[in-house]
Design brief:
With 427 residues, the protein is of the alpha/beta class. The protein has helices at 17-20, 23-28, 42-52, 61-65, 81-90, 105-118, 132-142, 165-172, 177-180, 189-199, 293-296, 344-358, 366-384, 406-410; strands spanning 8-13, 32-38, 57-58, 71-74, 94-97, 122-124, 149-157, 203-212, 231-240, 245-251, 262-268, 271-274, 281-284, 288-291, 390-391, 422-423. 46% of the residues are buried.
């Protein structure tokens, strides 16, 4: 077991537009003593190192793997996340991985095995866990206001033309379409986590249908990508371990460009949460109706689009914090620094650093991450079989002697309260 340290040296692997949002946060964190950058593109590596004032750089993953970095934050193409994570864990380094975890169940099992064997921290950079809607719904769930889970919907609606083309071109080079055609359900962690991080359950079975693409860019075609994938949109119906039902939508050709690209609905026997055009609402079995727009509204970020932002990038990438966020947990050094994805970036960095230092499990640990990711992999297999109902393997819960960063949150009363409700008639 690698001993825990009070301060960390963090290697940022991949310096594209997404990593740029996190580099300043790692630099500012009081428990991070040094930053190194790694990128196979020499010109981009030199540019980012100069801009952020970082002197230590590495031209390959193998080089940074052989460095004295305590942890690696992986922001590389999706199909590389799992092999890089496994190699880093085996080399004695903590791992922060951008989503998804992996593109196969076998890879996820290998990461879980490496975490158990090494005792090191693995954390998935799943932004949706920290969305204001998820923070609020988790607290209402803990208070018993939902009752028994009945049904949930998670959606990730992100058209290829809204900020996807350029990142794939940057990371994939001349053959970028080979990776851009990844099945939508291979990227299910945003939509799945919005439900599972509230209820604590997991998905047990899935039936999924896919829509074959007809776009002229021919990204989603047999022979055009590594997966022979024809589906640009997929919809899954799932059973949950607590007896409920859920639906997940993963859409990459969709005429949606307003509001959150990641959305959730949760229906229980005593209360329900929904997103409405006029604002999010929570309503109860006894006709109480709570309007949540002010509580969940994120402040705008002072860090707006720049020339490195992919064309069409959605506004949630740059959003700040909401009143429902536990802002007291964040280092004061983060004030005024970039945030994004509805306030999640700063919490992601802080939770990862805390987990590395203390050994407590961050919220998006490997066992939670597996439950976010594996259902999508099985869903894609179902869609290839015309919607056949398939069982979803489960890697189980963390070791019984684990401690959790979430316990720190739960021990402190929230600094917000639901607004005064309206009462709707029973008719």
């Amino acid at each position: 077991m690698t001993p825990r340290k009070d301060t960390l040296k963090v290697g940022i692997v991949g310096t594209g537009s997404f990593a740029r949002s996190f580099i300043p946060l790692y630099q500012a964190h009081p428990s991070v003593r040094a930053i190194a950058l790694c990128d196979i593109r020499a010109e981009r590596l030199a540019k980012e190192a100069s801009e952020f004032g970082i002197s230590e750089t590495y031209p390959s993953f193998e080089a940074v793997l052989d460095s004295d970095c305590d942890a690696l934050a992986i922001f590389t193409p999706r199909q590389t996340h799992a092999p890089f994570s496994i190699a880093a864990l085996e080399a004695g380094k903590h791992v922060y991985s951008a989503v998804p975890v992996a593109t196969s169940v076998e890879e996820i099992r290998a990461i879980e095995s490496a975490v158990r064997r090494t005792g090191l921290t693995y954390m998935l950079g799943e932004t949706s866990y920290y969305y204001p809607t998820a923070v609020l719904c988790r607290e209402l769930w803990r208070q018993g206001k939902f009752g028994r889970f009945v049904y949930g919907e998670g959606e990730y609606m992100h058209d290829m033309e809204h900020g996807f083309y350029e990142p794939f071109q940057h990371s994939g080079g001349p053959q970028w379409k080979r990776v851009a055609g990844i099945p939508p359900m291979f990227y299910p962690t945003h939509s799945a986590s919005m439900i599972l991080c509230v209820t604590g359950a997991h998905f047990t079975q899935v039936s999924c249908l896919g829509q074959r693409d007809e776009h002229e860019d021919a990204i989603f075609r047999k022979g055009a990508n590594h997966w022979d994938n024809e589906f640009s949109n997929q919809t899954a119906l799932l059973r949950t371990s607590d007896g409920g039902t859920a639906r997940l939508n993963e859409f990459r050709r969709i005429g949606f460009s307003a509001g959150r690209s990641v959305r959730v609905k949760i229906f229980g026997t005593r209360g329900c949460f929904e997103e409405h055009p006029e604002g999010d609402v929570f309503y109860t079995h006894d006709y109480q109706y709570y309007q949540l727009k002010e509580l969940l509204n994120c402040s705008s970020s002072s860090h707006q689009h720049d020339e490195t932002s992919p064309q069409g990038t959605q506004e949630d990438f740059f959003s700040g914090l909401a009143p429902v966020h536990p802002q007291w947990r964040l280092p004061q050094e983060f004030q005024g620094l970039p945030n994004g994805h509805y306030g999640s970036h700063q919490f992601l960095v802080d939770d990862f650093v805390r987990a590395c230092r203390t050994g407590a499990l961050a919220p998006n640990h490997i066992w939670a991450a597996a439950r976010y990711n594996i259902p999508g992999l099985i869903a894609h297999e179902s869609s290839l079989r015309g919607g056949e109902l398939l069982d979803i393997p489960d890697l189980g819960a963390p070791p019984t002697d684990s401690t959790f960063l979430e316990d720190e949150l739960n021990a402190t009363a929230p600094t917000w309260a639901l607004p005064q409700p309206s009462r709707r008639s029973s008719g």
